[in-house]
C-alpha cells in the first residue's frame, strides 16, 4: 500500500501536466512539471529530489501513456462490438492530423475513448484509411472483427461507397454501417438555412479571412499567441 501511495505521489505532477496542457515541448515540461512538484512539496508531500526535474516528468508521462494504451487495448479486445470514428484536424504546428476514437460498451454504458492523434500527410481516401488502420492495429489486431459502425463527418472522401474510406473499410468488414456525425449534420443544416442571409455571408468571409491569415503566417500566429499570453 505504501509503495502504491508513493508511486501515486510521484506520478501526480506528470499526470496533472498531461491532462492540463497540449504543449509537450521540453521548456513547457520543465516549467509546469517543476511548478506542480513545488506545490506538492509545499503541501507536505514527501518527494525524493531525484524526481524534481524534467527528465523524471518525461519518464512518468511515458509510463502513464503506456498504461493508458494497455487499458485501451484490453477494452477493445474484450468488447463484442465497437464503433470507429475519425475526423481530420490541424495541430498547433499547422500539420494535417487525424483524430481517431472508438465507442464501446463499458459496464452497460456507451463510452467514447480517444485512440490516437496521427499525422495524416495525405488527406485523401487511401491516406486516411491507412492512418485509421495503423492507429487501430496498435491497440488491437482483431479490431475489424468487431467493428460495427464507422463514424464520420459526411464528407465524400469518408462516406464514398466505392472510392471513400467507408468503401475501403467495408471490403474487409462487409457488415459495416456508416454513421454521419450529428454535430456535422446540424452544422450543414444551419448553413443551408441561413446561407441566403447577407450578414451571415459577411461573417463567414471575415472568419475565413482571419483563419487563412494566421494559418499561412508563422509571424502573425506568434504575435497572436504573444498577445494572448
From TrEMBL:
It comes from the Eukaryota. This is Zinc finger protein 862.
